[in-house]
Amino acid sequence: MTSPQPVVNPLRDPRDKRLPRIAGPSSVVIFGVTGDLSRKKLMPAIYDLANRGLLPAGFSLIGFARRDWDDEDFMAVVHDAVKQYARTPFSEEVWRHLAEGIRFVQGTFDDDVAFDTLAQTLRDLDHVRGTGGNHAFYLSIPPGAFPTVLQQLKRSGLCEQQAGEWRRVVIEKPFGHDLESAQALNALVGDVFPSSSVFRIDHYLGKETVQNLLALRFANQLFEPIWNSHYVDHVQITQAEDIGVGGRAGYYDGIGAARDVIQNHLLQLMALTAMEEPVSFEPRELRREKAKVLSAVQVPDDILSGTARGQYSTGWQGGVKVQGYLEEDGIPPSSTTETYAAVKLLIDTRRWAGVPFYLRTGKRLGKRVTEIAVVFKRAPHLPFSHTDTEELGSNALVIRVQPDEGITIRFGSKVPGPSMEVRDVNMDFSYGQSFTEASPEAYERLILDVLLGEPSLFPQDEEVELSWKILDPIEKVWAKTKAQPEAYLSGTWGPASADAMMARDGRTWRRP
Ligand code: BG6
C-alpha cells in the first residue's frame, strides 16, 4: 500500500485556536454526477474542504453515472466544476492530491455488474488509499431512482459495514411528495441502512446564518425574554429568488414552490425560530425540540384564505426581459404548478398562541433574499402626539440569512431637531464587517458532517413526516380547486392574493 501525501492547508491561520474538525479515512460516492447539484455544489464543496485541510490524506471521490467516461474524463469534469464554482482559490497542489483519489464507475442504476465493479473499486481504494471501509453514498438523483439504487447497495453488500468501518447514505430532497410517499421512502431506506447511517440533506441547515439563529437565541440574555406571544406580533419567513426555473423544468413542474421550499427549508427555519431551548446541543435533543414545534403547527381553518399561490409571467428583471413560467423550456403551456407560495401557520403552544407565522417563497421575485423577520407588537402607549410618530413602524428583528448575511434590528429613534419626532432606524450586524473569515458554503459543512458522522444538521424521518403532515392538507385543497395559480409579473413581489391574505389580518409583507 502506498501512503498518500497529507493534504496541505494553505488557508489555515496558525493563530486560529479552534480545533479543526478533520474527517477520518473515507470516501464519497456520488450517484448523479452529471447533474447540476453535483457540478455546482457537491464537487466544489469537496474541493473547498480539501483546500481547508479538512479531508483525510487518502480521501477518494467516486462518480457513478451512465456516461461513457473513464477516470480521466470524470477528473476533467470535476476539475472544471471546481475551477468554475469553488469558493476558495484554486491550488494546483491541493487539486493534484485530490485528483489522485478520483475514480469513475460507468453503469446504469439497474446494472448489477456496475455495482459489483463499484464494490471492487471501493475495496481497491481501501487498500491503495487507506479509505478504511468508510464510504458515504450520496444520492443526488431523481426520487424515482431511489428504490433501485438502495436495492443495489443492499444486493451488492455495499451498505454493510464490518467492525470499525462505517457506511452512510446521503439523501437529497425531495424526500417524498406527500406524507404517504415520505413514509414509504423512510421504510425503504430503513430497510437498507440503520437510521444512524441516514443523512437527509436540507442545505439551509448548513448555512452559517441559520446556525447563528441558535447562538442568537440561546447564547444571549437579550432576546429570549421577548421571544413569545407577549411581545411578538407575527413572524415573516421569506425565501425569494430572482431566477426562474432555469434548466430544472423536469424536476420542478408538478412539484411547485410549496413542496420545493416550504416543506423543507422554510419549515426548518420556522422550527428553529420557534423551538424551546434544547437541554443540550446533542442531535437528539435538538431534533426533539424541532419536532415538538412541527407537531404543534396548525394550518388555517380556511386554507384558501390563509394561503396564496402564484405563477410568474413575462416581466423585467435587472433591465432584461424574461419569459413567463409557461414559456420556459420543458414546461407544458397548461401547467398549474405554482412558482410562488405563501402560507399562514399557527403554533399551538403557550409561547406562540395567536402569533401567525407567515411563510412565503417564490421564483422571479424582486430580488434574491432569504430572511426571518420577527415583528414585535407596538408599544402599548406612546406619549407623543400622533403626528410625531407617523413614521414609526413596529420594532423588528430581522435575521438576514442571505445574501448580505447578518442581523438588523429596527426601532424608533428621535429625528434630530427641536421637535420630538420619532422615526424607524436600523441597527445592523453584518458578518462581512464583524468577521474576516468568509462563511463556508452550506454543502461544505454538511458533507464534512456526514464524514464525521455528526447528524445534528440533518432532519430525521419524524421531522420530514411532520412537515408533510402540515403541507398535505394545503396541497389537497389547492389540488381540489384545480385553479390556475394567479399570475404575477416577473420582477415583482408575487401575486395580489398574497397581499390580500396579509391585508385580511391587517398586516403587510415586508419589502426586503
Ligand atoms: C433548493 C430548491 O432546495 O433550494 C431550489 O430546490 C432553490 O428551487 C434552492 O432555488 C435555493 O437555495 P439557495 O441556497 O440558493 O437559497
From TrEMBL:
<dbReference type="GO" id="GO:0005829">
    <property type="term" value="C:cytosol"/>
</dbReference>
<dbReference type="InterPro" id="IPR022674">
    <property type="entry name" value="G6P_DH_NAD-bd"/>
</dbReference>
<feature type="binding site">
    <location>
        <position position="173"/>
    </location>
    <ligand>
        <name>NADP(+)</name>
    </ligand>
</feature>
<feature type="binding site">
    <location>
        <position position="66"/>
    </location>
    <ligand>
        <name>NADP(+)</name>
    </ligand>
</feature>
<dbReference type="InterPro" id="IPR022675">
    <property type="entry name" value="G6P_DH_C"/>
</dbReference>
<dbReference type="GO" id="GO:0009051">
    <property type="term" value="P:pentose-phosphate shunt, oxidative branch"/>
</dbReference>
<feature type="binding site">
    <location>
        <position position="363"/>
    </location>
    <ligand>
        <name>substrate</name>
    </ligand>
</feature>
<feature type="binding site">
    <location>
        <position position="260"/>
    </location>
    <ligand>
        <name>substrate</name>
    </ligand>
</feature>
<dbReference type="GO" id="GO:0050661">
    <property type="term" value="F:NADP binding"/>
</dbReference>
<feature type="domain" description="Glucose-6-phosphate dehydrogenase NAD-binding">
    <location>
        <begin position="29"/>
        <end position="212"/>
    </location>
</feature>
<feature type="active site" description="Proton acceptor">
    <location>
        <position position="265"/>
    </location>
</feature>
<comment type="similarity">
    <text>Belongs to the glucose-6-phosphate dehydrogenase family.</text>
</comment>
<dbReference type="InterPro" id="IPR036291">
    <property type="entry name" value="NAD(P)-bd_dom_sf"/>
</dbReference>
<dbReference type="Pfam" id="PF00479">
    <property type="entry name" value="G6PD_N"/>
</dbReference>
<feature type="binding site">
    <location>
        <position position="241"/>
    </location>
    <ligand>
        <name>substrate</name>
    </ligand>
</feature>
<dbReference type="GO" id="GO:0006006">
    <property type="term" value="P:glucose metabolic process"/>
</dbReference>
<keyword id="KW-0560">Oxidoreductase</keyword>
<feature type="binding site">
    <location>
        <position position="207"/>
    </location>
    <ligand>
        <name>substrate</name>
    </ligand>
</feature>
<dbReference type="InterPro" id="IPR001282">
    <property type="entry name" value="G6P_DH"/>
</dbReference>
<dbReference type="InterPro" id="IPR019796">
    <property type="entry name" value="G6P_DH_AS"/>
</dbReference>
<dbReference type="Pfam" id="PF02781">
    <property type="entry name" value="G6PD_C"/>
</dbReference>
<keyword id="KW-0521">NADP</keyword>
<keyword id="KW-0119">Carbohydrate metabolism</keyword>
<comment type="function">
    <text>Catalyzes the oxidation of glucose 6-phosphate to 6-phosphogluconolactone.</text>
</comment>
<keyword id="KW-0313">Glucose metabolism</keyword>
<feature type="binding site">
    <location>
        <position position="203"/>
    </location>
    <ligand>
        <name>substrate</name>
    </ligand>
</feature>
<comment type="pathway">
    <text>Carbohydrate degradation; pentose phosphate pathway; D-ribulose 5-phosphate from D-glucose 6-phosphate (oxidative stage): step 1/3.</text>
</comment>
<protein>
    <recommendedName>
        <fullName>Glucose-6-phosphate 1-dehydrogenase</fullName>
        <ecNumber>1.1.1.49</ecNumber>
    </recommendedName>
</protein>
<feature type="domain" description="Glucose-6-phosphate dehydrogenase C-terminal">
    <location>
        <begin position="214"/>
        <end position="510"/>
    </location>
</feature>
<dbReference type="GO" id="GO:0004345">
    <property type="term" value="F:glucose-6-phosphate dehydrogenase activity"/>
</dbReference>
